Structure formats: C-alpha cells, structure tokens
C-alpha cells in the first residue's frame, strides 16, 4: 500500500499540469473590437473612393495632354491625383505618413482634404464630346468621396477619431499581452515536458 501511495503522489504533478494548457489557451483568445472593425470598413470605402478619383483624374489628364484640349486642365488633374494618393495613404494609418502630416491624424483634417479632392474631381467639364462612361465614373467617385469627407468632418467634431486612436492603442497593448502570455505558456509546457522526463527517469 505504501508503494501505491507513492505512485499516486508521483502521478499528481503530471495530472495537474495536464489540465493547465487548455484552460489558459481558452483565456488567450480575444475578440476584435466591433468599433475598430466598423472604422476599418469605413476607411476601406474611403480609400476605394479616392482610388476611383485617381483613375478619373488620370484619364482626364491623359485626354487633355493627348488631344491638347486644355494644358492647364491636365496640370490640374495631376495635382488632384497627387492629393488623392495622400488621401489613400492616410487611410492606411501609415506611421511614416502621419509623422510628417500631423493634421491627417485628426478626422476633421482628413475630411476637408477628401472634400477638396472630390471637388477637384467634380470639376471635370461635361462637354458634348466627353464620354458618358467617364462622366458617370467621375460623378460616382466624387460624390462618394464627398460623402466620406463630410462624415469624417462630422466624426472629427464629435471626437470619434480620438476614441479610435485610444482603442487602437488599447488593442495593440492587448495583442502584445496575449503574445507574451502565449510565449509564457509555451515555456511552461516545455518545462512541464522536461519535468515529466526527469520524473520518468527517476
């Protein structure tokens, strides 16, 4: 009976360690923030509208330079393309971009820039010789980006951009904590395996 008791005591550590990983793995799982998911979807729509504006202005610039209709209109379209590219990069939350363009960190600043690009795109002349498909694309892209710009300005006034930045920092901290916890869990499992090997040898 003393031998059985000793075996029961020796098997206790392995039994306790066996149930640990599953419970800690369940705690490690985290759900995405619904607010940030909605913000990312809105950023995608805004970037898509800006890309449409880039395409429209490029086509307009090429047509102006090729047919020699209006050189100044072609130059105007080139500036619209460059500013629209800035709008797209701002929606990616690129740290290098936001470092030198502090105003783009604020949603009101982004919204005003988007409205400016939309107005530049909408200034496309609707003469009789223009292609209807290009004019339709110009209207869709400009009005879509204009709506996004107004929403950005209103959201910026309501300080929603500040809330987003705060939640993004919280999400980064949480992800780092989860990563550290998983690393600790991995090390614990390695130590448990090493302890079991030492116990078997003994």
Quick recap of the structure?
With about 200 residues, this protein is mainly alpha-helical. It has eight helices and no strands.
Rg over alpha carbons: 29 Å
Biggest sheet layout: none
Strand tally: 0
Question: What global shape is seen?
Answer: elongated
Q: What percentage of amino acids are in beta strands?
A: under 5%
Secondary-structure element sequence? HHHHHHHH
Mean pLDDT: 78
Give the uncertain stretches in residue-range form: 1-26
Query: In which range does the helix fraction lie?
Result: over 70%
Oligomer: single chain
CA(first)-CA(last) distance: 20 Å
Give the helix tally.
8
What structural class should be given to the helix and strand makeup? mainly alpha
Please tag this protein with its features.
202 residues, disordered N terminus
Describe this structure as you would to a colleague:
By secondary structure, the protein is mainly α. It has eight helices and no strands. α2 (20-28) packs antiparallel against α8 (160-201), α3 packs parallel to α6 and α6 runs antiparallel to α7. The longest helix is centred in the C-terminal third of the chain and has 42 residues, at 160-201.
Topology:
Blueprint: H1 2-18, H2 20-28, H3 34-67, H4 71-91, H5 95-100, H6 107-122, H7 132-157, H8 160-201
Helix pairs in contact: 2-8, 3-4, 3-6, 3-7, 4-6, 6-7
